[in-house]
Design a protein that fits this description.
2 domains; 6-stranded parallel β-sheet; alpha/beta; Rossmann fold
């Protein structure tokens, strides 16, 4: 069976699909990933990838979008996201349709915010599956995205673009309030490969990881300066995980803070005492899978909802950057209740079916739908 995986050209949308794509290959299927701009990350994951838009850079594309629609930021969070991702889907539509016609997939798996994947599948007459990448209920935003894609960009959306045939949700039930519960899947964090040293000297002190996620936007990581200053007053080893050029903005760093570069979280979180971050779904779920308490500093609506979800489960603290001080960081790394909440969520995550099982279920379902 040929499985085509489709994601927007945004790294935080691409990486969550990698484990299921791996599983598709290891269960005997022919897999192809389709995206743009971040194709090298997919190739490094060992997956075949089609570059839908050679030379594409999402930052340049966003600048063009704002020039074309100067009022987009004044639309409010819901409508602004809908316009942005509808325009991104429209950009992918033609090359994706051409790829689907040439490669002839039997099944299309598309990321939550890439419904143009369902459109390509419908044109080929094959089933499609939505792979959710967000923690919060995105039904309103997705509905608006579909309305804009149909209205402003003129796409004829098939029913499955608005009401997916199947939905994969890699979020523990305790966090998935309002999310569809069709095909639950264990979250397997992936943010790149790494080399693990053969021997690592253990430290008697707590280890606190600080990250801005996959983005280097100033409005997201600039707020971490206060956190790093507060961390300098805590008896802990602090690891700053972000690109070196971004970390330079905070120099000189406190003596207990190490700038580690952009290191995959699965490399850093085992054995960590806590994680401080912006609230992106992939980062939240990496900490959930590792059973690590979190301090979440959300900067926009979806991340506020993510922060609320994990905080309600007693596994995180949500705060504003200006409210973070050494006392709060000490509580983060020392509070046994936070550690217990994080471990409960990790156990719930581990109990879900692994990607290989879900890939097998999808292959059987797709084959049955095509007459066996």
């Amino acid at each position: 069976m040929r499985m085509l995986f489709v994601a927007n050209p945004v790294l935080s949308h691409v990486l969550p699909l990698v484990p299921l794509a791996w599983a598709g290959r290891t269960t005997g299927n022919d897999v192809l990933f389709a995206t743009a701009g971040v194709t090298e990350h997919v190739r490094q994951a060992g997956l075949p990838v089609a570059d839908l838009l050679p030379g594409f850079a999402v930052e340049e594309w966003e600048e063009q979008l704002h020039r074309r629609y100067p009022d987009v930021q004044g639309l409010g969070a819901l409508r602004a996201h809908g316009m942005k991702f509808a325009a991104l889907n429209d950009t992918l539509a033609r090359p994706l349709a051409e790829l689907a016609e040439a490669w002839r997939p039997d099944l299309v798996v598309y990321s939550e915010i890439t419904p143009i994947g369902a459109v390509a599948a419908a044109r080929r007459g094959v089933p499609s599956v939505r792979h959710d990448i967000e923690i919060c209920d995105t039904s309103s935003m997705l509905g608006h995205l579909a309305d804009v894609l149909a209205g402003a960009f003129g796409h004829d959306l098939p029913p499955q673009a608005r009401a997916p045939e199947r939905i994969v949700t890699a979020v523990p039930p305790a966090l998935a309030t309002g999310k569809p519960r069709d095909l639950a899947m264990r979250h397997m964090p992936y943010s790149g490969g790494f080399v693990l040293p053969c021997r690592q000297a253990p430290s008697p002190r707590p280890r606190l990881v600080v990250t801005g996620g996959t983005s280097t936007q100033d409005d997201r990581i600039g707020r971490l300066g206060r956190i790093l200053r507060a961390a300098g007053q805590v008896d802990a080893d602090v690891v700053l995980a972000m690109p070196p050029e971004a970390a330079k903005a905070y120099e000189p760093l406190p003596p207990n803070v190490e700038a580690a570069g952009w290191v995959p979280l699965p490399r850093l979180l085992p054995g960590a005492s806590a994680l401080v971050h912006h609230g992106g779904a992939g980062t939240v779920m990496s900490a959930v899978a590792a059973g690590v308490p979190q301090l979440v500093l959300p900067d926009e609506l979806p991340r506020h909802l993510n922060a609320q979800a994990v905080t309600r489960q007693g596994a995180a603290i949500t705060a504003r950057p200006e409210d973070v001080d050494a006392a709060l960081l000490r509580r983060l790394v020392e509070d046994p209740a936070l550690r217990a909440g994080a471990e409960r969520l990790a156990a719930e995550c581990a109990a879900l079916p692994p990607p290989a099982e879900v890939a097998g279920t999808l292959a059987i379902w797709a084959q049955a739908g095509r007459g066996g």
